[in-house]
Amino acid sequence: MANGKLTIQPTHTPEERLAFIHFQWEVYRDDPNWVPPLISERVELLDKDRHPFHEHADMQLFMARRDGKPVGTIAGIINHRHNEVHQEQVGFFGFFEVLQDREAAEALLETACNWVREKGMAAIRGPENPSQNEEVGLLVDGWNGPPVIMMTYNPRYYVDFIEGAGFYKAMDLLAYMVDIYKFGPHCEHLPPKLVRVAKKIQERGGFTVRHVDMSNFDAEVLRIKKIYNAAWQKNWGFVSMTDAEIDHLAAALKQMVDPKLIWVAEQGGETIGMLLNLPDLNQPLLKAYPRPGTPEWWTMAKFAWHWRVRGAVTTLRGLVGGILEERRGLGIMAVLMVEAAKAAVPQYRQCELSWILETNTPTRQLCELLGGYVYRTYRIYEKTL
User: Fold this and answer.
1) Which of 33, 102, 203, 339 has the fewest CB atoms inside 10 Å of its own CB, making it the most exposed?
2) Is residue 230 scored above 80 in pLDDT?
3) 115 with 258, same domain?
4) Each residue of 113-164: pLDDT tens digit?
């Protein structure tokens, strides 16, 4: 057990929130796989006046100190939209970071439990940073490299600390890796079964597929918003994003997207499906390495150089896909995946398809049909209060 007096205090001021954010660099100082966030983005995410998540949620940050020195952080979260949609009384914890200090870890987790219990919650889940629409899950298997864009990362010992505090598995989220370079320069080696399915579906006709039109970005966002919220509404734990949340995310992604990686399916003038892939900008971000004390303009200059000039992005992330429920079972997603692969192969080498619920058998089968294999597992934990 670590020596010194342990205290847990809520954070309230901008200065305290900044110390909360900066603590991550202490945890990961010797970890070559950790991708530090942009401090400005994390400041915005935790600011109740600036990020739309807070319009339907309550969140309290806590910091653990030992003899005055920061040793850990956590947030207690009440997502009111989640409880309204799922008819639950569940709170969440997120932004859990801690040194190898079991006493501090247990105290932080208990503090979050107490906070959500006092709000009338019957259980707590996490980590969610701060919801499933941002970064979610604890890495429990697959410490084999840096995380891709918008995926989590953590030390191995977090698993022991969280399970030792009485949390059990609620759901596993899987990340599949597809080595798309194996498809050949012209996708001549795409899995034959997938090609046959896609060709058969296209021969039947009835719908068209195209990549996103960046000159009409706002209208495209509306189409993708419709599919995302409708196609995912029955997934475990899913809560549709508000218009403000969608618009906020779209504004952030607009500068990052590669138009040829985002595909939509249309029928009779109606959008019926979509597949959204993103370049893994964690690759140049890791090289730029944001850190406290370094001007962010300098970090962004290095980031742009590694991305645009050095071509550091060789991986993409299959972020989200969906087909309207009444159009499922027709093979539309197979067509979107084949077209996206053809567009990606000349520039990218790998694609992470993530995250996918362990219970989502149809999507898992599609990933495997594409040649994907599970290479990382993330877990959402729960504890009854």
Assistant:
1) 203
2) no
3) no
4) 999 999 999 999 999 999 998 999 999 999 999 999 999 999 999 999 999 9
The model's confidence at residue 76, banded by pLDDT at 50, 70 and 90, is very high
Domain carrying residue 222: 177-378
The residue among 175, 178, 90 whose CA lies nearest residue 126 is 90
Please tell me the predicted confidence (pLDDT) of residue 1. 53
Q: 118 or 366: which carries more pLDDT confidence?
A: 118
Say if residue 195 is in the same domain as residue 168: no
Number of H helices, E strands in the chain: 12, 15
- Tell me phi and psi for residue 43, to 5 degrees: -60, -45
- pTM value is 0.94
3-class secondary structure, 368: helix
Mean per-residue pLDDT of the chain: 92
Same domain, 147 and 190: no
Q: What is the CATH number of the domain that holds 98?
A: 3.40.630.30
Euclidean distance between CA atoms 81 and 85, whole angstroms: 6
Positive or negative torsion for Cα 34, 173, 170, 150 = positive
What is the structure's pLDDT at 37? 96
Q: How far is CA 382 from CA 128, 166, 167, 171, 385, in A?
A: 11, 9, 5, 9, 10
Greater model confidence, 205 or 322: 322
Same domain (yes/no): 146, 230: no
User: Are 254 and 303 part of one and the same domain?
Assistant: yes
Calculate the CA dihedral of residues 20, 22, 27, 28 and round it to 10 degrees.
140
For 182, phi then psi, to 5°, come to: -75, -10
N- to C-terminal Cα separation, the chain: 26
Q: What is the mean pLDDT of residues 329-333?
A: 80
3-state helix, strand, coil in the chain (%, to 5): 40, 30, 30
**H or E, element range at 257:** none
Q: Say how far apart CA 24 and CA 16 lie, in whole Å.
A: 14
- 152 and 239 share a domain? no
Distance CA 318, CA 343 (A): 13
